[in-house]
Amino acid sequence: MHENLDPQESGNRSGREKSREAPRSRPAPDREVPLTNRRTPAAVQAWLDGDLPEAAVRDGDMEQHVDFWKHVERETRARRHMRTPVHVYQQIMDALPQTTPRVITPWWRRPLEVTPSTALAVTAGLLAAGMLLGAAVLRLR
Asked: How many domains, in total, are found in the chain?
């Protein structure tokens, strides 16, 4: 028998199962971050594009946007200069195979996988070829 796994339907559940259910209107868990419709102002976008000087956008509400993008720039610059440690680089290189990987079995010995659409197309083609061959034999008589 199949169980109804749809959480929206109440179905025929016992009272014990219904008591274990979470309430329908529960608050969002702590790990969920609500999305806001805040957008970066056009002046900050122009500053990011290089069209405006920084002094023109360091104004009230836009200052926090400028500080954010300055922080992103500092972090990006620091990460650009990071290098992979030598021992990690060596572990990666040691894990790579020394020779070119070979196919274990040749293509003609591999199992043939036929999808239903391929089987249908082959069947239709063989049927059409059989009909053409039958028609040609009947014309020769």
From this structure: 1
